[in-house]
Write a structure and sequence with these properties.
Strand content: 25-35%
Largest sheet: 7 strands, mixed
Number of domains: 2
CATH architecture of the largest domain: Roll
Shape: elongated
Helix content: 10-25%
Structural class: alpha+beta
Number of helices: 4
């Protein structure tokens, strides 16, 4: 039986889950939220210091004013994010804060939500598709509607994939990972070698098997028959070169 050839459609890609976009339009918090949801994913959420640094970089050093982020107080006077993703474990409040709504000048402070300021949106590069399909159907869906089934090249991408997988309705979630019968190794459908690995112990390398991630902790990768029906994660991260170019990245260059 001849092995199917999977043509790569993406090459180099940082593919972090959140990309931040500074929008230099003065809007109140509610209108800023609506703008982000229409054009991106939502107002910015910030879960740790690394994300705070990326938010700062998205704004640039020349801007010294305030900018809305997605943190607000609800009717219960508890702080929560606009996107309902994650908690507020990481904070960066100015001295004496918080007290009401939130803006961002590098340090968080409270501001009435009817004031008008620029704002920071985020865009998700990873999309959990909560439908059950075979691996090939998942691959075709991602390539038709986004870019590709997700490739996991490092711990940071694994972290975001794990967060997405926890929302799945199936015990495992398809990745863009396939075992080559001819070459006898695993590869990403993005045509990159499997350098970073997170396999479950005693994983099997059966001809034609495909890779999935556990939807629950510890989120190990597992080898499963491609005919299983699972949720899947697509990537919409843009390529840095022509997407028609076939490219195989060497592990030593990662």
């Amino acid at each position: 039986l001849a092995e199917t050839t999977y043509v790569p459609v993406t090459v180099h890609c940082s593919c972090l889950s959140h990309q931040y976009h500074f929008v230099n339009i003065n809007l109140n918090w509610t209108d800023a939220q609506a703008y982000c949801r229409e054009n991106y994913t939502d107002l910015a959420t910030i879960d740790n210091m690394k994300e705070m640094k990326r938010v700062t970089e998205s704004v640039g050093s020349d801007y010294t004013g305030k900018a809305w982020i997605g943190l607000k107080k609800g009717t219960s006077w508890r702080w929560h994010w606009s996107s309902a993703e994650g908690g507020t474990g990481y904070t960066n409040w100015d001295t004496g804060e918080p007290n009401a709504q939130v803006t961002w000048p590098g340090i968080w402070d409270m501001t009435p939500c009817d004031e008008k300021h620029p704002f920071i949106c985020y865009d998700d590069n990873l999309i959990l598709v909560n439908r059950t399909t075979t691996w090939n159907e998942a691959l075709n869906y991602c390539r038709t509607n986004y870019l590709d089934l997700v490739s996991v090249h490092n711990e940071e991408i694994q972290y975001w994939v794990s967060r997405m997988a926890e929302k799945a309705s199936t015990d495992h979630v398809w990745l863009g990972l396939r075992f080559s019968c001819y070459l006898n190794f695993w590869f990403w459908v993005s045509a990159e070698n499997v350098c970073y690995q997170n396999w479950e112990t005693n994983n099997t390398n059966f001809c034609g098997n495909t890779g999935a991630v556990q939807s629950k902790y510890p989120h190990y990768w597992v080898s499963l028959p491609e005919t299983m029906q699972l949720n899947f994660i697509c990537s919409k991260c843009p390529s840095m070169t022509d997407p028609r170019t076939q490219y195989l990245q060497n592990c030593q260059n990662v």
